[in-house]
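Minutes, project check-in
Item: structure for the 152-residue chain
Input as provided by the requester:
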Amino acid sequence: MLALLAIAMVGGSYWLLLQSPESSNWGLHFKRTISTLIISMIIGSFLLFHSLSAFIFVLLQKNKSFYFRWSILLTFTQLTNRLKSNAFMFTIISILNGGTLIAFGFAYSIYYNTLDTMKNFVPYSYQYESTTSDIDAKIRELINKEDNYSLA
């Protein structure tokens, strides 16, 4: 039961993570969504490595013809002990991967929003501040010499 809960929690946290930042879920409930995502990722990762791996080993141990081969018996004993001691480290690695994915998503959304804002506020390639009419005339003359131009 805990293994299914772990898969559901990790899957749900990644599903929340992959939702568009423009969706109403992120826009209206940012703090709640990010806290739910982080908590379910931590608990789900912990349960995944503690209960699901143990569940898989128990299923394999129930298959007596597979389990009682000499090399497999020794390997399973060592793996079970190492898995119990390394489950916490696997959880930390999984959380760091999720955190990296969250940071990448935020960085991409900031980059996308910055470019969109730049297009709205600075629509032209070059801008200059008009100080005198002589400079304006020179600038217009330079622009008119080009084939592809647009004056604002």
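Outcome recorded: Residues 70-121 form the longest helix (52 residues).
No further action items on this chain.
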